[in-house]
Amino acid sequence: MTRITADISVSLDGFVTGPGAGPDSGLGAGGAALHAWAFSDDPEDRRILGEATARSGAVVLGRHLFDVVDGPRGWDAETGYGAGEVGRPAFVVVTSAPLASVRLTDLDWTFVTTGLPDAVAAARERAEAASSAAGRDLDVVLMGGGATIGSALAAGLVDTLSLHLAPVVLGSGTPLFPAGARHTLVQRGAIPTSTATHLVYDVL
Asked: How far apart are the C-alpha atoms of 158 and 151, rounded to whole Å?
């Protein structure tokens, strides 16, 4: 069965970027520390990253995050979701308007202009098709940014929340949970490594 998993790195004080994040500084001041685990040589970090990528049938991201990863200082052949792993899944971008051009033309992009629920539905279709081709269940992964994941949680679109808790306090930036957000979670896993604590929750 295809599940919808929100998967994101977060600071101890709840931020998914540092201050000043944007196309020229995707993670903001100090934000690179959030993803140190993804470049770690720790065997558990490598296993968690590889298994998450292998389970990804389609990935959803918001327009602001897309502008960062498709920007001149964004992803390339060596960096980005799935780089160096078993392969890169289809990507679905939530956007209010069609794009004039895309830099990363070698990746499989779908742009949805009718809202997040429709983007998740489109990603589910892609993930289910990939599951059939692979002969095993693959998931939809919401990789961010923070506003996209927060909106998906608020709309009841998320089955599983996977947090990579980095040992850093950023002080400000993009919060994962907006003020007033309330969610009921059931913890399913907690794995500490040398660079992060990897937490998995079912979302009720």
From this structure: 10
What DSSP letter does each residue of 72-94 carry, written as one string?
TTS--SSSSTTTTSS---EEEEE
- What string of DSSP letters covers 15-82? EEE-TT-BTTBTT-TTGGGGGGGGG---HHHHHHHHHHHHTEEEEEEEHHHHHHHTSTTS--SSSSTT
CB atoms under 10 Å from CB of 35, counted, come to 15
Q: What is the pLDDT of residues 93-126, one digit of tens each?
A: 999 998 889 999 999 999 999 999 999 999 999 9
| Range 171-191 average pLDDT | 93
Please give the structure tokens belonging to residue 194: 């040398």
Half-sphere exposure of 130 (CA within 13 A, CB side): 23
Q: How much is the pTM?
A: 0.94
Report yes or no: 31 and 166 within 8 Å, Cβ to Cβ. no
* Domain 4-203 bears CATH identifier 3.40.430.10: yes
pLDDT tens per residue across span 24-41: 778 999 999 999 999 999
